[in-house]
Design goal:
This protein has 333 residues and is α/β, with parallel strands linked by helices. 40% of the residues lie in helices and 15% in strands. It has 12 helices and 9 strands. Strands 1-2-3-4-5-6-7-8 form an 8-stranded parallel beta barrel, surrounded by 5 helices. The longest helix is centred in the middle third of the chain and has 22 residues.
């Protein structure tokens, strides 16, 4: 009887741990980051946070557009450190991110990085969507080489902005080097342990162990798989760096490409970790929210809110019982 009671207690403990979700992959994660991750797990399967990306030179434009359409603000505010690399908008982004977090918003940030061998300003086609030869990739991912050192310096500039957020105790859903399973960025379609997985781990180690950026939750953000010639996005599993380095597995969905098989593949790869819609063009329809209930948040890409969604669709999804907006969210402090 005593041994049976012990087994039952262990089962209850395990089920309680599962309900609480996973710990942050950074074992030194800040209290704020831990609370945010725990809060997201508390919503899993019941609610999806509404989110909105904002161009880094228009940090609130599409938040305001969403409010004008629906009477509500998105719960998640997002922006991009180096979109095109024409200017370092880091100071403005940091200032706005601090304001947003203190006002009760979830903050997510990304980074359209230029090729490490290039000097800013980074051309979109020439650098961000440029190519790295196999030899350049090997040099980039080999510690101490000239290209690796240039990459370190490039990453360190972004880290300085993130340190200001750390010091202000702002947790960040951090999603660098996104859409890696596609063929359109220099970090894209580099398969296996020596490919993209290695680059992700390099950045993780640099930011966590060298810079002490304990306010980050690591969002690995792929693209919905597709087979369009010369615009392909391949299977998620080929680029996943593993559960030790990822807090949330996200995907970007455009053109209503909410395939159930892709959702199921990402969910299986997550192994119980959170999944999210890192970027969307067209908002998911109500039936998608019902069939795919584990999305932790969606984030509409800036102007697509109005260019590829009707006002009625935006209102419908913001009013959906599964959707939570800023007014309905109280972040743990």
């Amino acid at each position: 009887m005593k041994s049976l009671l012990l087994v039952l207690l262990l089962l209850l403990a395990c089920s309680g741990a599962a309900a609480q979700g996973f710990e942050p992959v950074n074992r030194s994660a800040s209290p704020e980051a831990r609370k945010l991750l725990s809060y997201l797990y508390s919503l899993r399967g019941r609610h999806t946070l509404a989110g909105q990306h904002n161009y880094n030179h228009e940090l609130n434009k599409y938040m305001d557009v969403a409010h004008d359409l629906t009477g509500k603000y998105p719960a998640v505010w997002g922006s991009d450190f180096i979109l095109g690399g024409m200017k370092d908008y880091g100071p403005e982004i940091v200032e706005e991110a601090i304001k947003k977090y203190r006002a009760g918003y979830v903050v997510t940030l990304m980074w359209h990085a230029g090729r490490p061998q290039d000097d800013p300003p980074y051309g979109w086609k020439e650098s961000i969507q440029g190519e790295l030869t196999d030899a350049q990739w090997k040099e980039l991912t080999t510690p101490g080489t000239p290209l690796n050192l240039r990459w370190q310096a490039q990453a360190d500039r972004v880290a300085e902005h993130l340190k200001r957020l750390r010091d202000a105790r702002v947790p960040v859903l951090w999603r660098p080097y996104h859409e890696m399973n596609g063929v359109w960025f220099w970090w894209g379609d580099k398969r296996g342990r020596e490919g993209y997985q290695k680059l992700w781990k390099m950045l993780f180690e640099r930011f966590v162990n060298h810079h002490g950026l304990n306010n980050l939750l690591w969002v690995w953000d792929a693209n919905a798989p597709r087979d369009i010639p010369k615009d392909e996005a391949f299977s998620y599993r080929l680029y996943y760096p593993g559960p030790r380095y990822v807090d949330v597995l996200a995907t970007d969905v455009y053109h209503f490409d909410y395939e159930q098989k892709d959702y199921d593949e990402l969910r299986a790869l997550a192994g119980g970790k959170l999944v999210a819609l890192g970027e969307v063009g067209e908002l998911p329809k109500p039936e998608i929210l019902e069939a795919q209930p584990l999305w932790s948040w969606f984030m509409v890409w800036s102007s697509w809110l109005v260019s590829d969604n009707t006002p009625d669709r935006v209102k419908e999804i913001y009013a959906h019982p599964r959707t939570l907006t800023h007014e309905e969210v109280t972040l743990p402090r």
